[in-house]
TrEMBL record:
PANTHER family xrefs: PHOSPHO-2-DEHYDRO-3-DEOXYHEPTONATE ALDOLASE (PTHR21057)
SUPFAM superfamilies linked to this entry: Aldolase
Pathway assigned to this chain's UniProt record: Carbohydrate biosynthesis; 3-deoxy-D-manno-octulosonate biosynthesis; 3-deoxy-D-manno-octulosonate from D-ribulose 5-phosphate: step 2/3; Bacterial outer membrane biogenesis; lipopolysaccharide biosynthesis
An example Gene Ontology biological process: keto-3-deoxy-D-manno-octulosonic acid biosynthetic process
Family statement: Belongs to the KdsA family.
Domain of life according to the entry: Bacteria
Source species of the chain: Nitrobacter winogradskyi (Nitrobacter agilis)
Keywords for the protein's UniProt record, in alphabetical order: Cytoplasm, Lipopolysaccharide biosynthesis, Transferase
Catalytic activity: D-arabinose 5-phosphate + phosphoenolpyruvate + H2O = 3-deoxy-alpha-D-manno-2-octulosonate-8-phosphate + phosphate
The protein's name: 2-dehydro-3-deoxyphosphooctonate aldolase
NCBIfam families: KDO8P_synth, PRK05198.1
HAMAP family given in the database record: KDO8P_synth
GO molecular function (one): 3-deoxy-8-phosphooctulonate synthase activity
Subcellular localization(s) per the UniProt record: Cytoplasm
Amino acid sequence: MNQPVSASPVVSVGSVSFGQDRPLSIIAGPCQMESRAHALEVAGALKDIAARLNIGLVFKSSFDKANRTSASGARGIGLKQALPVFAEIRSSLGLPVLTDVHEAAQCAEVAQVVDVLQIPAFLCRQTDLLLAAAATGKVVNVKKGQFLAPWDMGNVVAKITGGGNRNILVTERGASFGYNTLVSDMRALPILARTTGAPVIFDATHSVQQPGGKGASTGGEREFVPVLARAAVAVGVAGVFIETHPDPDHAPSDGPNMVPLREFEALVRRLMAFDALAKAADPACPE
């Protein structure tokens, strides 16, 4: 009888490493790809910050925001226009790249130019999508659905490992709590690590969303991003996901919960300090 395949406890994305006991790495970028120039501007700025801080960075942006609150919401520049930009960011800046996929048919094409395929939270139980992403051999980052308990993600990860891919990240982004509200349960972080065996990422910006909170769009409470990020890093995670933008108040999506780019470096510097304390060996307090 075949033994079940487990997720890899350490996942490498180019030169960036994610592991519960490894130094913190970051996934960051604007919510959606607005243009080639904008993506390269933000990616270049983030690369410079990561170099100064000596921290691993994966650039993130979405070619399509397929689950906007309203049909009138801007969705992004689309698959065909975005793929050459992702390829250029990888080749010219040397940054690994992550983006969302929404349909099984997109996986193979997107995998040609990115390093990580991300499964949106609303789609985390879509078996065909998970298997198609797994089949590419790329790292798969699965966001835990707002409607799932952390231990339910064991079944999600098993679908991907069953598809022959052990390189999985699991991302916590809050749980639905009443109407238009999410809550972050920090117990979910060690539970996710224990029940999936995969490195755990904390999504600090989507965790402060207020889904549909502005009627035809999603609201957010940006001021709580540093609060939740510090708490998650203190508990212990492999990485933090932070959407950032030069002018989030005028961004086409997720502006209320994105971190202004000018504040990004100071936030990450503080998180690195918390991470060093959380992962320091303490002989008096064996785990």
